[in-house]
Amino acid sequence: MQQATDFLEESDALHAVLANVTGDQWETVTQFKRWTLNDVLVHLHYWNQMADLSLQDPDAFTARIAALFAKAKSEGLRSAENTAISLRGGELRDAWRGLYTDIGTRWVDLDPKHRVKWAGPDMSVRSSITARQMETWAHGQEVFDILGLERVEQDRVKNIVVLGVNTFGWAYQVNDKPVPEAMPRLELTAPSGVSWEFGDPGENSITGSAVEFAQVSAQTRNIADTSLKVEGPIAREWMSIAQCFAGGCEKPPAPGSRYRTEGTAED
Fold this sequence. Notes:
By secondary structure, the chain is an alpha+beta fold. It has helices at residues 2-18, 37-56, 58-75, 77-84, 89-106, 125-146, 158-166, 168-174, 210-217, 233-241; strands spanning 115-116, 123-124, 185-189, 195-198, 205-209, 229-231. It is built from ten helices and six strands; from the N terminus they run αααααββαααβββαβα. It is globular. The two termini are 32 Å apart.
């Protein structure tokens, strides 16, 4: 299952920029909801744990997710996750790396169609590990941004592009809007320079960088802060509400609010 290898490589890319973070740097506040670097790793490590638990012990997963949501109802999800994961700083980074390496290595041999439980509907392990890559890539963006580093993108971002394509209808549903009959045509350029095309030609189209499309889909950038060429009313509406992740309706970041800073770490 190539997606497991892609998840491992995505995680390694994020680990590389966190390898030299020490001390108070872990409390650096990012542009994403004022999460700190510690918060980012708590979130990624917790849900990596949950994804693996859903595979290995479905009953334990069900019990643990119920406990988390009960606590989140009174304290908020951020607090509930930070209570569930007590490690911080370098110890958290090492634990996160140990688990994601184990998952990426072990999941590669799984049947991609095997079903596992999740917080919402059940899903295939291929969808589960793709979601873990997407979360790592998306939350990694706020880390790269606040450290003033530019991520060197790879063609494994196609998994996130496909997730964005597959959640076209979901973006409308979660916003209580009728789903258009046809998805806009996508003509996207991969980091390697190859072309990725989705959908049938029509008056609605989106053309440009595959990475920027993934950024809009994962809500790490506002469409106004990209160079994507968006034509047609459906294409413009989709890019204003795109959401390739589960959960309730989330608004995209405001224009100009997510960007690479001058940084707090050396490249």
